[in-house]
Amino acid sequence: MSADGMADDLHDLVEARLRRVDQRYTPGRRAIIDLLVSVGHPVSIGDIAGRLPRLPRSSAYRHLVDLQVVGLVRRVAANDEFARFELAEDLTEHHHHLLCVDCGKVIDVTPTAAFERSVTKAVDQLAETEGFQPHSHRLDVLGLCASCR
Ligand SMILES: [Zn+2]
Ligand SMILES: [Zn+2]
Prior knowledge:
By secondary structure, this protein is α+β, with helices and mostly antiparallel strands. Helices cover 45% and strands 14% of the residues.
């Protein structure tokens, strides 16, 4: 499928998900989703303001919160100062993050199948002691990036 075709499917999915909670896929929300798709990694409010200069920061933030509430956008942060936003994993693919606590840089890392198998096994063991049934996991590693070390 072409990249455009995939984007269309994604927009249909976003629209359907919003409609379920009586929300409309407004141009502002669409601009945010388009940006997250095209950038392909977590962005800050500042990044969004830089790329969508005509969209007020307060609106951008409100759209992000609305999209987050319906599970379309996920907030990624080493701490509150460095909040970043990305498309939810069910719209993209499973990955982990390396978060720099000094400069706020977020690096997306796609784990190998072998890594996922060991993490899943370790998580299953951990959860089992609590009688908990795990469905998925999130792994954000906090530390210092190459330029901050
Ligand atoms: Zn850094
Ligand atoms: Zn994983």
